[in-house]
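Cross-posting from the modeling subforum.

Setting up a comparison between two proteins and wanted a second pair of eyes on the formatting. Protein 1 (sequence, then structure tokens):
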Amino acid sequence: MLLAKATQTSALDSRLTADDAELLRQMLRAWGDLDADLLYKGSARGGHLGDEILQAGQPRPPIDLSELLRSEFWQFQMEFAEGWEQHPTMMQPVGGMDRIVKGFESRLGGVIVRKAPVTRIVDGDRKVRVRYRHNGAEHEITADFCINCAPAYLVKDIRNNFSRAYRDALAVVHPGKLFKIAFQGRRRFWEEDDRIYGGISWTDQPIMQLWYPAHGFHKAKGILLGSYTWDPEQGEAWGRLRPEQRLAAAIAQGEKLHPGYGELVEKGISIAWGKVPYQMGCSPEFTPEDRARHFPTLQTPNQRHYLVGDQMSFVSGWQEGAVRSAHAAVEHIHHRVASGD
């Protein structure tokens, strides 16, 4: 509305012709659902009071501008879905994102060695040796190349002979402090009571948001995300609580969004990535200065050692980044082998 008003003054004359100003005014009227006087007095987009199908609907009255500004919803939640990494439609593997991992696992058979923490990496001109502990004994494997997807902030603490520049680059990567809670609904109350089908409810409480499933509509039960926060301080605070304390706190906060929430959900589970052994965080992070200085070093192999994963992309925290970085490493190795290296 304010921008539409500005088109009626000389404020935009230096940028717009009279015809362009009129076209902009028409666009803003359509976009903002303004009346002939360029005022916003409510919109059908905000829903109606009562039945708008069999009766003439009465638009909800507009919320006062100062109240909207004080809500701080505009800071990032309002345009959250407009981010390039959040655009719909986002495909989901049936059964959850770990189905992708299980798919690889089913084809690799006995190649995977579990419960085998790496203790040393020795990189060389022609070979790379990796030592690991398994079933109480030390083992070593020698290979032409090593593709390493362990977090850089953990790799730096493994004994190695990497170059000084490579070790310095590993040291600047820090773990993200993300945290999530999920609940199973005793019934799909968000659909039955509130007609919510997918999407997010935002809150300024520590849980930050509730995510509703975009699948399984009208089934008996469903899983909803009872909290998802990436704020470092909040993530650490949640991580300090015992699992049962986390669930109790999330239920108490969810009550403000869905009255009776505690009786509507069951079988909760939480994950504080900073507490997960051999991961100790997620979505590895660089400061802008460290990324500019050290990221290229880590994207370049240290002799025959390649660091991969979402950390070696500009979309940390996304499987797309992990897969693309692995593809880049394999392609680089292919060219080295093809050239006789």
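Protein 2 (same layout):
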Amino acid sequence: MNNKAPAKYHILARVEISDKNIKELPIEELWRIHDEACREFDKWWLEIKENPHEDSLKIINEKLPKTSLLDVKIEIAYRILRNCNFCERKCYVDRYVKKGACLLDYRSRVSTYFHHLGEEAPLVPSGTIFFTGCNFRCVYCQNWDISQNPENGIEVNAKQLAIIQKWLRENDARNINWVGGEPTPNIHVILESIRYLTELKVNVPQLWNSNMYLTLDGMKLILHVIDIWLPDMKYGNDKCALKYSIVRNYWEVITRNMKMLAERNEDCIIRHLVLPGHIECCTKPILKWIASNYRKALVNIMDQYRPEYQVEFKREKWRDIARRVTKREMEEAYKFATELDIAWEPVTK
């Protein structure tokens, strides 16, 4: 974040692909080329990560190849739009024709962008870009005006997103924070915007602020692009996820994706919003999983829950979560995290 090493995408954009006619290749062949090139990327990235030095910044000014691993990712992403499976809802909608489960067609909409000072201390000021639309239906969503109403934003293309990122970085943003709503439905535009960012020679870490309900394909597309991960772990079981966010197989999907990050030793701050009455069923299982699987991660145990959206509109229906979390509940969560030796205090407000 201090411009002492290149962001991942600068490496990605220099991994050259010998087959220049990627638009003519079937998607199965594109994935084969992608996976092979990613192994080359990983060697390069690990070398820089283990031995960061200012000389590595020279890559930013190196000539871009005609076709790179980044170009392959962009091509695959736009192909997926025809039968969309970025997220585990797997609606398989042709988003050039109609909207997917995320409430979006092929176009991305941004509600706002600004330097966020309220994120975790190591990240601020964070250059947040808020997309509209979401693949979750959280009944307590605090951003429901944009997550469930995708028209509450302005359509942006990849070039415009690159210019926004450039402006945020030049005005002291430490990172670009993709958020919403949910960034997952916008993978295609994000990747293409980063291609323009490399041409502009802008160096800024990419941060993924997400519900992490991605498919393996979605994860593979962004894994070599994102420098900092800010995932939500909302529920410790599938029953609560289905009841409050209308998503299936939540625990299996989220832990699978989180393990992918842990195995790569990715930089990560996990967020867990404590829900009232959900210490035993959600908070403790999540903290146990983190302690066993991702000890490097920092954990923000959040007390910001408040009854919003459907919970506020229909308090009788949702009376089990129609209150704030108590001080006693938060103290129990903090104590449990401490007993598990989880690093939560540096990033929990």
